[in-house]
Each structure stands twice: as structure tokens, then as C-alpha cells.
Write a structure and sequence with these properties.
This protein is α+β, with helices and mostly antiparallel strands. It has one domain. It is built from 4 helices and 9 strands, in the order E-H-E-E-E-H-E-E-E-E-H-H-E. Strands 2-9-3-4-1-5-6-7-8 form a 9-stranded antiparallel sheet, sandwiched between helices.
Length: about 180
Amino acid sequence: MGFKISWIGFRGLSKEDALRSLNAVDTREPDEANEAPFSGAEIPGGWFALFANDFSFASEDRLARLSENCEVVACQVHEGVMVAVSYGYERGQQKWAILHDAQQDLRHIEVTGTPPAAFAQVRERLLKEQDQHDGQEPGVDFVFDVPLETATSVCPYKHDRWRFDWGEPRFTVLELA
């Protein structure tokens, strides 16, 4: 089955202000495995991350609205159809987006705007890994991680990792109105 989620990282807003912009309340109930519909955690570097068990939650309209007073980095992940998207927004404007849709092609990467500096290196490394595994392991999709690792280069969080160099995120259940 796999992940069918989205996450949004906010920088430039306090946790309280990010929650207010989401119309959310922190229940303070731990959500270690991100099983709740929504959960949130503070991430080093001044980030607050919202995890949503809803692929479409990080829609472009919502990201534009949520980024009006801050910087937002977001990802949409659907492992069932192998689609991964990452976005960067500031002050209500999309700065960049990276899409991988394996249904179009295993090496499909669509870029809008100016992606973060790490993008070129991430893309090159993962395309090389894809080339090395082609024919050996059918169905393996390294390119899927290009948008996700690029987002992580800006906001030090990734949905499928529990430990980072900086420690572990402490997610708590959020209730959205």
C-alpha cells in the first residue's frame, strides 16, 4: 500500500501562528507513528511541520494561502501510483515545484520555477542510481525521491524517516476545525 500523505513545513511563523493559520489546535497527545489524520512537530531551524494523512491536503491553493506570511515547503507522496511532488512557497507565491510521476515515465521529472540549489545534485545522484539498477530490479524507482530529498534539503524533515542528525521529531495530534 505505502504512503498516501502530504506534509507542510512552515518557517517564519511561530508554532502558534502556524496552528492559527491552519485553524488547528494541538491536543498535545503524542502521535509517534503519524497515525492521526493530522499531527505536528517543531523541527530545528525554525520549522513547524504538519503531517497529513491526506495526499491532497497540500494543494497549491492551500499552500499559497498558508504561505502569505511565511515560507512553506511541502510534499505530496502517493506510493500507490508512485507520484511525489514538492513545493516551495513564500509570501503567497510559488517559488518552485518538482513533480515525479512514474506513470508518465520512470525518469519523469517536471520542474517549475527555480528549485533549491541541492536539486541538481540530488537529481543527478538518483538518476545515476536508477541507471545502475535498471534491468536488475524491475519496478525500483529512485527518481521518486528527487522531489522529496530536494524538499528535505530546505526543511530538515522527511516523512519516512524517524531519526535525523538533529534527533527525532515529536509529533502530537492536531485537530483541524
